[in-house]
Amino acid sequence: MRRGATTPKRLPSPGALSACRRTIKAAQDAGDEGAALQAARRAVKRFPESARANFELAFHLYKLGRVEECLPYLRKAMEADPRYEEPFFFHGDLLVRQGNNDEAVRYLEKALEIRPDYTAARVSLARAHLSAGRPRDAVAALDEAARLDPSNPQPHLLLS
Question: Which of 20, 119, 125, 133 lies in disulfide reach of 141, CB 3.0 to 4.6 Å?
């Protein structure tokens, strides 16, 4: 390498990151959220630039009621991979639950820009619109969710 050149960022091998995800999932499936959280922390320590690892850590912190602590990891996941829809959906859904509906709409629309067929994001978007006093927008989001996933009962139930 020539003098003054920077070393390129080393990306995690897909196999190593998959192994971390399997460990997290095994702990989660066993009902041990504490172990899942610790596995997610290890994944972020090993792969700090991984959107998936940061999202997993945010998700498990949230499941343990540590909402404020999960937010930096959600932001890191969104920055690390702006084409990964899950952190945008999760952050938007969290904001709906907190009553921050206008901000939630921005995150949910970003998730839908990335993945237009994301039914859960459309349902959450409908809830944000409804809570913000925009029933027409809510109905439009639910209609589209029902059209995209006719076998999913949730949009149909909310429309009735």
Answer: 125
